[in-house]
Every structure is written in structure tokens, then in C-alpha cells.
What we know:
Helix content is 0%, strand content 59%.
Amino acid sequence: MSMYSSVRVELWTRFEPRNCPLQFGFNCTWSRTRELDPLAWRRQPNYRAENAADFWKAVYETPYWYRPMQDEPLRFGVDAAWRMRSWDVGLRLQVASGRPYTPVRAVATDPLNIKYGIAGDLGSAQYPLYRRLDARISRHFATTHVHWSLYADVLNVTAAENVFQIRYNPAYTSRYVIRMLPTLPTLGLEALPAGAPTPTASLPA
């Protein structure tokens, strides 16, 4: 059974004056997450094996603390909303340190000429910095019984090429990157009962 150790500190503030069209806020989170696997082991090739069944063996190691994939030591966010009459404009910026991953440290070829990646220490490599800017503009109008909001969202406005995963080709001669969300525009229409509070230009997570 794995063991976890986690520490988290979060700071945030918001500025929402009653008679000002501008609202904004920011948050900053520092965290440290570690995991201990009591059955630490890795696959190791045995080049003296005479058949494929004996080629691989498990080598057990002294358990060690490592960075799991959810460990992001620093996250920073800023959001702002501006309202002028029936129009809302919203922006949100998110920045985070890259998530850890386990790299391939070597490549082994078994007697059947099939190649396998030999993993390094767990969580010993890190993806690049994560950053994303989202934007929304909305127009509000009302009828007798319904309050309507017509909006346009653009996720990842700057087309930041955030890394989701690094993978290798079957021969382990090259690696390639799987990217996260590209620039994604969305149009939508919201309807609320008349008299309900008018939503601000909030953005989807």
C-alpha cells in the first residue's frame, strides 16, 4: 500500500467593489506531494538468458519517496471581469510548474528482437511550464420571463502547446509529445428566470 505526504499553502484575494465595472482576483498555491511505494521494483533484462521467458526479471529496490504526477509545486492564477451596461468581458490566466513524469533511461531488446523501455526513477523528470489564457465576452438581454446571455468563449487564446504526455515509438528510437487543449472557441446561449442575478463573465475551468 502506497504512502503519501502532502503540504499545501494557498493565498488568494479578490477585488469586487460594488460600484466599479472592474473586478479581479488572483491566487497562488505552493504545494509539495510525495509518494512512497513499499514494493519498489523495476524490470531488468537478463542478457544471459537462453529464451524469451527468462529474459526479464524483477529487481527490488529500497523504497524511496518520489514525486507523483499530481505534484505541481507552484500554481498561479489571475482573473478579471469588466462589465459595461449589457456587456461583460472576462480573462483568466493560469500558470503552473510542469508535472513530473518517469523517463526512459535505457532500451533493451529481448531474444525475439522486441524492444522495451527501461524506466528510470519514478517522477525524476518534469514536463515544461504549463500556461493558459482564456477569454469570454457576453451580451445580456431580457424578455418578460427570461434573462438571456449570449456568450463567446476562447480557451487557450495564445495556443500554448502545453505537454500532456511524452511517448516513444515502438523501436524507442524517437519520442513524440501529446499536447493538451488547442485554441478552442465556443458560442453559447444561457437562459435564467427573470429576476435572477445577472452572471458575470466567468470562465469554464
